[in-house]
Predict the structure.
Amino acid sequence: MNDSELILILASIILQAAPLMIAVCGETITERVGVVNLSLDGTMLMSAMTGFVVSLKTDSVWLGFLAGAAVGALFALIIAFGTIRLRQSQVAVGFVLTLLGDDLSAFLGQNFTHIPGPVVKFMPIPVLKDIPILGPLFFNHDMVVYFAFALVGLTWWWLFRTQPGLHLRGTGERPEAAFARGVNVNRVRYLYTLIGGALVGIAGAAYSLNVKIGWAEGHTRGLGWIALAIVIFGGWSPIRGAFGAILFGATKALATVLQRIFPEVSVVAFNSIPWLLMILVLLIVSSESTERIIAFLPRPLQRPLRHLLRAAPPMALGKIFGGK
Amino acid sequence: MRIRTWIVRIWPLVPILAALLFTIGLLVLFGADPVEVFQAMWQGAFGTQDKTLSVVAFTIPLLLSSLGLLLTFTAGLWNIGIEGQIVMGAVAASWVALFMDATSPVLIAVEVILAMLAGALWAGVAGILKTRGGVHEIFGGLALNSLAIIFTNYLISGPWQPPEGGSFFGTVPFREISQLSRFADSRFAPFSLLVAMVALVMVFVALRGTTWGLKLKALGQNPRSAFLLGVSSERETILAMMFCGALAGLAGAVRVLSWYDNLKQNISGGIGYLALLVVMLAAYRTLWVPLIAFFFSAVLNGAITLQLRTQLHSSLGGILTGVMVLFVLLFGSSKALGIGKSSEDEALEPDTSEIES
């Protein structure tokens, strides 16, 4: 394998990780405000299907993305309404929507499987794309990839550097305190749950319009759950989450390469890597043993490692706010 | 006032009707005649004796899994890993069925015991990941589901592959003596029904009349006061998971030993996820679970025939049941909507007569 081949592989990892990055950003926003949108897997299937069908019918990928975002926001609205207004369990409503989205997408998309359709236009950025290494990696892509990176930065800035972002996090950590400071807790929760859902919808559409083009039953199945796990691995930070999404893509690509090098090892070993990795990273993030291991290491390493590996969820995550 | 009481009384039917209307709307969108579709589904579920027996046969593993989930739900656990527990049960039973030499009753006893053990162990892993590793049972369970399915595919395409090159889709059929004996050439094994009934009684008694059931309830409703009362959350969490896993493993055994006659890819086919819906729709009440499991089984079996006959995708069955659970969750309680005031409004019972007409 020579250098340019390696860069090509890395660039394709980034292309494939982009939808996951967008979904992780959306869910990070939602969970930071205190709501778990567990329906990601169903939402992404529905929006991948809708995005593809709409852009096929209208011949416009933009309308496809818009439709995907609308579907994502609609699913999020059901979650928000069911859990904020009707005070039902977030996990229950989310889980039902996961299964429902899977079945609905299979049914509604049944006449659109395995057909070619429109694709997001390739759009290298002039000048920047000629920078050695960085150019082909980051600036030789299409709008979806640029949007994903911009979104990660924007989300981080919004969450950690602005006043509304502070209110957002406050609502997810200590809703009573935020309420006392004049934040309309439930309205803020509605707003960001919808925005987060719309982003997840865009991610679904990005998958069927940009990564694995087209539609088939169960097209993105599993991806939503991976995104939910990456949000935890990312410690509810968009930047660490984006890193997680790329790492996940890299592991999958590595598995493909390894499979080519060691054909005698069963495919099973490689297929199970993402799931073993999922258990492993969640253990690292949440287990107390990690804390004990970190305590053994030299002192200067402890703080950065903790910052890099450990995380606790927003304190009011999944809790209903307010009395009757 | 009278009108109001009346509305509250019939309210449980509203979400069910709404779910039917939603499904009818979808059918109209696809240019299908709803009456014809529901007739085809009814025919598919109860048209012949063989089909009716299939509905019963499909109900049994679903019921066993749902009963297991009653335990984990009571303890406040989301055992999404049940799908993998079913798969591991099926794998363990298949191992015995393929490789052990013994008389039929011994074989079946060993198959059942090992299947329950395998399911319980797989569930125990998710339990320990939660109590010791802080990994939420939803994520641990999902990963373990995928690993179980990958493991099955490995067995089918590797060591357990049928001799003459074989297919990737399943092992060789098991010997007759290692399968459950079925009723009238159908997929229904009366023995499995007996087992399910025993499980039903045991779960009902465990939750109603034992200290353990009470401990699970305490853990599920208020983990902190449960802790203060001396309930070990680790012990009860793992126990609840493992008992659920044992029932799921049993369900897996029923799948390979009577629904099919070998180990296939996708051996569970989503029964575990479906069982979660069954228990939610039953609003965690044990005695409603068998009825709802049977209803789901009828709808899904009917939908498969529907696809064969009308080319409409069989996911319609999943949509009907899914929307029903969603609407009942959202709008089931007239109290939450501010329509009724009684605190007695429970979540609802599905009225099967709507579908069956």
About this structure: Chain B touches chain A at residues 26, 78, 80, 129, 132-136, 138-140, 142-144, 146-147, 150-151, 153-154, 158, 273, 276-277, 280, 312-313, 315-316, 318-319, 322-323, 325-326, 329-331, 336-337 (CB under 8 Å). DSSP finds 15 helices and no strands in chain B. The longest helix of chain B spans residues 104-133.
